[in-house]
UniProtKB/TrEMBL annotation:
Residues 136-476 form the GS catalytic domain. SMART domains: Gln-synt_C. GO terms for biological process: glutamine biosynthetic process. It comes from Actinomadura montaniterrae. The keyword Membrane does not apply. The keyword Ligase applies. Belongs to the glutamine synthetase family. This is Glutamine synthetase. Residues 37-129 form the GS beta-grasp domain. It comes from the Bacteria. Coiled coil: none annotated. Signal peptide: none annotated. It holds the Pfam family Gln-synt_C.
Length: 476
């Protein structure tokens, strides 16, 4: 409970006149500041069920009205597929209806990579001010609040992988040095420097940037923050990468499979569970305990909940047909539902950090998610799974310290190592049967996710991997 209200009541309260006026006053002040910085327009963004960032924009002079009354949009965007075709679910579909986009002024920021523009993630409401049941940001806030009601917070961050091409159609790697090689930094030093400068000026705290394994591939890691902030930052980072790439005559792909037969882009999620109500300040439940690899009992239970629901979670975190071209054994993609200490072939990798900082650094890395995922939905589902593990007091099986693909099938079964779904259809079937996720996400979200996933399955029915990769390459 939060005061006399439930978590759901606190975070699903409709906008009233007082709240509208408060937001409008704040937006008017923000608009004056932005105008003084020569910003002309604000992009209001949301991420659809297919994982594509959509937008409506307003001139700075209309920001006050947008914050007060919202910007109209059709609910049908929730059932857009990645090729912009439209399916229908039981809760949404068709041309009728209207929603309102309201900018989150706490996350309003000028875009260094797009001079003259600012960005604000949008919350979605009905015309009467009620929270839209398919609004993923609201869903993530609710899951965060449910954990907070029990005294827990989560710190999280997305790793962003992308591949850079010199051409906008076929993929032509923009660099040719070896995987992880300094040569790739030298080849695109100006581009990478511009990216780091733009991210810094936009307020993103970058931990590291490095060349990755696949041709033309890089990765950037950012500082952990609260779940909604982490999802907002993931969107902001990707759009900054896209803009800086275009400014340098390059094209960025975040697709799970840029080229068939090559390593794809992951969207790894890092999470740590923290107890906020200790006498000595926040305490990381992933360290300092007597459980496996130093986890506390709560940290272990949270991890076990995620591990238990990983097959169903794939319908959220690996949501495209192309995802299953990436999610194959022995490619560091995490194709088996198991966990292991620093095991990059386990779907759930436990990271301790260097000795001496483990109380701050220990965390879980979900390796089977990719860049097609809606980051808000992905985190909401992960938090729900972890919360279920906490509520049930789950324990982890023994860690796996080898590539699970190399274990005999009988040994995998004995060690509770399960292969994850190998197709999107298989993942959707498991997802629809998962009572924990259905309860946390709600019927509207569950049904819409399943409808969109089945739409993409039908879209690529019988398509060759090369055709799937080509059709997906520039969409996310």
């Amino acid at each position: 409970m939060t005061g006399s209200r439930t978590v759901e009541q606190t975070f699903d309260t409709a906008l009233d006149g007082h709240e509208r006026a408060r937001r409008g006053a704040r937006a008017a002040e923000a608009a004056r500041r932005l105008a003084g910085e020569d910003v002309a327009a604000v992009a209001l963004t949301w991420v659809d069920v297919s994982g594509i960032t959509r937008t409506k924009t307003v001139p700075v002079g209309r920001l006050e009205h947008a914050a007060t009354w919202g910007v109209g949009m059709s609910p049908v965007f929730d059932v857009f597929l990645l090729d912009d075709s439209i399916v229908s679910g039981r809760h949404v579909g068709g041309p009728v209806g209207d929603l309102r986009l309201h900018p989150d002024l706490d996350r309003l920021v000028p875009l260094a990579a797009l001079p003259g523009w600012a960005h604000a993630p949008a919350d979605r409401y009905a015309q009467d001010g009620a929270v839209h049941p398919l609004d993923a940001r609201a869903l993530l806030r609710r899951e965060t609040a449910r954990l907070a009601a029990a005294g827990w917070t989560v710190r999280t961050a997305f790793e962003i992988e992308w591949a850079v091409s010199t051409t906008p159609d076929e993929f032509t790697p923009a660099c040719h040095g070896p995987a992880y090689g300094m040569t790739r930094v030298s080849e695109l030093a100006g581009y990478l420097r511009a990216l780091l400068v733009a991210l810094d000026r936009t307020g993103v705290s970058v931990d590291q940037l490095h060349p990755e394994y696949a041709a033309g591939q890089y990765e950037v890691s950012v500082a952990a923050e609260d779940p909604v902030g982490a999802a907002d930052t993931a969107v902001l980072v990707r759009e900054t990468i896209r803009a800086v790439s275009l400014e340098h005559g390059l094209h960025a792909s975040f697709s799970p499979k840029v080229v068939a037969g090559s390593v794809g882009n992951g969207g790894h999620v890092h999470l740590s569970l923290w107890r906020e109500d200790t006498g000595d300040g926040p305490a990381n439940a992933m360290a300092g305990g007597g459980g496996p690899c130093g986890m506390t009992d709560a940290g272990q239970a949270f991890a076990a909940g995620i591990l238990d629901h990983l097959p169903a979670l794939l319908a959220i975190g690996a949501p495209s047909v192309a995802s299953y071209l990436r999610l194959v054994p022995s490619h560091w993609a995490g194709a088996f539902a198991c966990w292991g200490l620093e095991n990059r072939e386990a779907a759930l990798r436990f990271v301790t950090g260097a000795q001496g900082e483990r109380d701050r650094a220990a965390n879980l890395e979900v390796k089977c998610f990719d860049g097609a995922a809606n980051p808000y939905l992905a985190l909401a589902a992960l938090l729900a799974a972890g919360r279920a593990g906490l509520d049930a007091g789950l324990a982890l099986p023994d860690p796996v310290d080898v590539d699970p693909a190399g274990l005999p099938e009988a040994e995998r079964a004995a060690r509770e190592v399960r292969p994850l779904p190998v197709t999107l259809a298989e993942a959707v079937a498991v997802f629809e049967e998962d009572a924990v996720l259905r309860d946390a996400l709600g019927e509207a979200v569950t049904d819409t996710v399943a409808a969109v996933r089945r739409g993409e399955i039908a879209l690529f029915d019988g398509a060759a991997p090369e055709d799937v990769a080509a059709a997906t390459r520039w969409r996310h």
